[in-house]
Each structure stands twice: as structure tokens, then as C-alpha cells.
UniProtKB/TrEMBL annotation:
PANTHER family from the UniProt entry: ACYL-COA DEHYDROGENASE, ACYL-COA DEHYDROGENASE FADE28
Cleavable signal peptide: none
Database matches in InterPro entries: Acyl-CoA_Oxase/DH_mid-dom_sf, AcylCo_DH-like_C, AcylCo_DH/oxidase_C, AcylCoA_DH/ox_N, AcylCoA_DH/ox_N_sf, AcylCoA_DH/oxidase_NM_dom_sf
Family from the record: Belongs to the acyl-CoA dehydrogenase family.
Pfam families xref list: Acyl-CoA_dh_1 (PF00441), Acyl-CoA_dh_N (PF02771)
Name of the protein in question: Acyl-CoA dehydrogenase
Alphabetical keyword list: FAD, Flavoprotein, Oxidoreductase
Record domain Acyl-CoA dehydrogenase/oxidase N-terminal: where: 6-118
Organism from which the protein derives: Streptomyces griseorubiginosus
Length: 411
């Protein structure tokens, strides 16, 4: 592994840092969070139009830049540094890789260029921690398991028919229509995404299988409601599907959807780890700057040894998390698996520690909700709830590696 950044990676990071410094300061961030969409459309247009960020990890034949997930993860470190609210994670990290991996050629040719240009946003409607196999295996009942709950898919014979197909009927033939019924909570950018990639169960309880479906934002029967979230920089929505017509992703119900979701989970974890490292770095930077200015007993509080020790501990934890995140970003670019979860766990803990110490050392103003330090603490807590928690990320990684598997010894 070569730990040095390439010239292209340095250029991407530098251009992104310069744009975000000018377009996503604390005031612009607050204003964007108060909008119905939860992000600034002009900033998203700049990220897509000037930098091609949504298509960074997409092939050039579909309008992308042609880089790997490594470059996307490093770019997200810069967006995490300023907590930039945008549909980048939902569109480029969650939805686009699934379309690229499982979509038919017609679906890829139609959707990926629009995603790469930023004119179309998308998201994954599924519980991320379980569906992406971050905290447990995703073979379980996270989408309903054929029982009540989750999202259920029903195959209708003919474009306008009412008869349902039997459990073993094929799902990819021409003239068939799928209808979805159910509800998904906490869908990232679900209230604004132009395309939903919905995970649903088909075949009933006895022969249940998980499939992915494409649902347009204007589909009849689709109800989207923005939810109040602790972390307003990650807007999310409740998605209700009331017999919504959907298109099967890939056109083949024999595709290994669970395996594709698990592979995606490792990439998502690496991207989130880099993003959390960027946020933790900025939180520590702001705290160091503040303790150098605030005076008590006639001297800056940053000169007290106890304060130095606390900040040094945060710095050591941050550097360890950065090393793990960079390795995970490199590994997913090389096709390695089962490294992202551990990096994400370490990064989330580093962000939580940096944000908590920042609030403490900012004193009275740090404890006000209006202060910027709380945005970083909310990001740490929100990601921990949505993609973790850290101890479950580590436990699942240990189970996958059979680290604590019992071995019987016969004498």
C-alpha cells in the first residue's frame, strides 16, 4: 500500500476544499438546514457541475469521472469537515453503486448519466445498518421477512391486470408490473430524491426473497414526509408506499441482492469513516483555536497542562481513526472486504470524543444549541444511531472474522 496521495487525489481535495470554504460557511449551513429540502440546491449544483462529485466513482461511459470509491471517500472527508448538507451520500454512495452493479444496460444508460450530472438525485429506502450488513448479517427479517411490516412486493400479471402471480412465478418478463406496499423510516434525503431504490420482500413467508425496485418520486400512492432528526445536516424522511407501481432493478429476481448490499456496506462504511474523520478534525481545530483565545486567570486556557492533555488525547484518537479510514478507503478501491466497519467504529468514536471535548472546552457558549460545536456532536450521535453503534460494528466484524469462535480440543 502506498500511503501517499496521488496528484489527482490532491487536486480533487484541494478544489473541493476551496469551493466549500466559499460556499458552505456556518451561516450558509444554518440557512440551508432551515429550508424544506434541508440542503442548498445551488451548492449541490456547484458540486455536480463544477467538480462532478456525484459521478466521481462512476465509469466515464455513463458520464462519470472514472475514479474509484477511494477518491469518493477522500472527497467526503472534505464535505464532512464542514458538515455540508447535500444529497451526495444518498445519491453517489448508496444508490448509484447499486444501479451500476445490478441494473440492466437500459436502466444504467438511462439513470446513471443523470445521477452523474446531478440533475437526478436518488436514495436507498432500507434500514442502512442492517440492510448493508454493517452491524449484523442481512439475511434476517430487516425488510419484513414475508410477514407484516417492512415493504412487500406483489407481482401483477400484465400491465393492467389484477391477478397476482404465485410464489414461484418469474419476475423479469415483459408485460409484468410490481406493486409495493409498506413503509420505510429514516430514509436519507427521501423527501427530495427523484428516484427511490426500495428494498422489498416478495414471494410471501414460505419463499420470501429480497429484491430491489426503482420507484419514481411522482409515482401514485407514494407518500414522503420529512422527519425531525437530531442531526439536521442529514435530512431524512418516512416513505409510505401504498400499492405503488415499481420497476424491478435488474429485471431478474434471481440476482443476489443481499450479497450486493453487503458489498456496498463496506464501501459505505469507508466513506462514512473518512467523512467522520474530516468532521472530527474540524471540531478539534476549532477547539484548539478557541482555547488559544479565551483567557482565565490572566492567561489563555490552552496554556494549562490539563487542557493540553485533553486535546492531546483527542489528537491521538483522531490520527488513529484517520489511518484506519484511509486504509479502508484504499482497501475498498482494491476490492477488499470487511475492513470498513472497523474503520467506521473508530472514526465515530473519534468524532464523538472531539465534539464532546469541544463543547466542554468552549465553556458556557459551547452548551448552547445555537453554537456550531453542537452540530458536530449531533452528527456523531446521529451517525452512531443510523449506522452503528460502534460496539455493534466491532462485534459484527469479529463475528465475520470468527475471532471468538469456539474450538473443541479433544484429548
Amino acid at each position: 500500500m502506498d500511503a501517499r496521495f496521488t496528484a489527482e487525489q490532491d487536486e480533487i481535495r484541494g478544489a473541493l476544499w476551496d469551493l466549500l470554504r466559499r460556499r458552505c460557511g456556518p451561516r450558509e449551513l444554518r440557512e440551508a438546514l432551515d429550508t424544506p429540502a434541508g440542503h442548498d440546491p445551488d451548492l449541490w449544483a456547484a458540486l455536480a457541475g463544477q467538480l462532478g462529485l456525484p459521478g466521481l466513482a462512476l465509469p466515464e461511459e455513463y458520464g462519470g469521472v472514472g475514479c474509484s470509491a477511494t477518491e469518493l471517500a477522500l472527497a467526503c472527508e472534505e464535505t464532512g469537515r464542514v458538515l455540508a448538507p447535500s444529497p451526495l451520500l444518498a445519491t453517489a454512495v448508496l444508490a448509484a453503486p447499486l444501479l451500476l452493479a445490478l441494473g440492466t444496460e437500459a436502466q444504467r444508460a438511462d439513470l446513471l448519466p443523470r445521477l452523474a450530472s446531478g440533475t437526478l438525485t436518488a436514495t436507498l429506502a432500507a434500514p442502512p445498518a442492517t440492510a448493508l450488513a454493517l452491524t449484523c448479517g442481512n439475511e434476517g427479517e430487516w425488510a419484513g421477512g414475508g410477514r407484516a411490516g417492512g415493504v412487500q412486493a406483489r407481482l401483477v400479471r400484465g400491465t393492467g391486470g389484477d391477478a397476482t402471480a404465485g410464489p414461484g412465478a418469474p419476475g423479469g418478463g415483459a408485460g409484468t408490473v410490481w406493486r409495493l406496499y409498506g413503509q420505510v423510516e429514516q430514509v436519507l434525503d427521501g423527501h427530495t430524491a427523484g428516484l427511490l431504490v426500495v428494498a422489498a420482500h416478495a414471494g410471501g413467508f414460505a419463499r420470501s426473497r429480497t429484491l430491489l425496485f426503482l420507484v419514481s418520486s411522482d409515482a401514485p400512492g407514494l407518500v414522503r414526509t420529512r422527519q425531525t432528526a437530531l442531526d439536521a445536516t442529514r435530512p431524512r424522511a418516512c416513505i409510505q408506499l401504498r400499492h405503488v407501481e415499481a420497476e424491478l432493478l435488474g429485471g431478474d429476481d434471481e440476482a443476489d441482492v443481499l450479497e450486493a448490499l453487503a458489498r456496498l456496506g463496506d464501501t459505505v462504511a469507508a466513506v462514512l469513516a473518512c467523512e467522520a474523520v474530516g468532521a472530527a478534525d474540524r471540531a478539534l481545530e476549532r477547539t484548539v483555536e478557541y482555547v488559544g483565545q479565551r483567557e482565565q486567570f490572566g492567561r489563555a486556557i490552552g496554556s494549562f497542562q490539563a487542557v493540553k492533555h485533553r486535546l492531546a488525547d483527542v489528537y491521538v484518537q483522531l490520527q488513529a481513526a484517520r489511518s484506519a479510514a484511509y486504509y479502508a478507503a484504499w482497501a475498498v478501491g482494491q476490492g477488499e472486504q470487511r475492513v470498513g466497519g472497523l474503520a467506521l467504529a473508530q472514526a465515530l468514536e473519534a468524532l464523538r470524543t472531539a465534539a464532546a471535548e469541544g463543547i466542554q472546552l468552549h465553556g458556557g457558549i459551547g452548551f448552547t444549541w445555537e453554537h456550531e460545536a453542537h452540530l458536530y456532536f449531533k452528527r456523531a450521535t446521529g451517525d452512531d444511531l443510523l449506522f452503528g453503534p460502534a460496539h455493534r460494528l466491532r462485534a459484527h466484524a469479529a463475528d465475520a472474522a470468527r475471532l471468538f469462535e469456539r474450538t473443541e480440543v479433544t484429548v
